[in-house]
Write a structure and sequence with these properties.
alpha/beta; globular; 9 strands; five-stranded parallel β-sheet; Rossmann fold; two-stranded antiparallel sheet
Amino acid sequence: MTTTVDQQSARLARLRDAAHRIRRHAIDMGEVQGQGYIGQALGVADILAVVYAEQLRLRPHDPHWDGRDRFLLSIGHYAIALYAALAEAGVIDPDELQTYGSDGSRLPMSGMASYTPGMEISGGSLGHGLAVATGMALGLRHRGNPARVYNLLSDGELDEGSTWEAALGCAHHGLDNVTAIVDVNALQADGPTAGVLRTEPVADKWRAFGWHAIRVDGNDLAALTAAFDELRAHRGSPGVLICDTRIGCGVPLLETREKAHFMRVEAHEWQIARDQLEEGYRK
């Protein structure tokens, strides 16, 4: 028992370090432009740390390896978060993050598959990712390829009817090689998600569509690892992990920002954000 506890403690410590570096990368990229979707990046850092450190089969220096697990970012404005995770995973050089959003960069502000190694699809217009994931998973199954497909969605993306059409199709075909991850940060471009279009009870709706659904605190690494382990072992239907996250998580200055969907951060605030991130990490 002691060994198991020690191993889990080491696992969580390793993931906490990875999530911290992802957040630090995101802040550094945000400063390049002085604005962006930094709040979402900080919110999903723990999720991406678990996915890229433990869940995905990949070869960092061969992003087109046929046996890789596919990670689809249908919420293209979260690209800043994925770039940070790709740097942590060794797919891109961390030094390249300083080109974020600049002319000629491979790291545009919205994700584009034609530019960035490890970016499987171009995102932006919401509601496409899960349909693509369904098609990819069907193709992989027909080819006998054991790779899995992961799709990161937002709660705002659940407003799109195409998402639910894809959810029906994925369950109909019994695609247990698909894992959807829904970032529920309760905010979208037009305001609080609940005020734009009520989606709760989210987990019950996914279950009604034939999915194996788990809901966790998306900023709790222990809960995330347990949930991902369960979803990987599940067979017979697709799985969805619904993650309640905090925009700006780890940086109190940004957690309390009123207009948080797309943040404008003053020049002097970036160092404050770094200092707060480091202070929280040391606790």
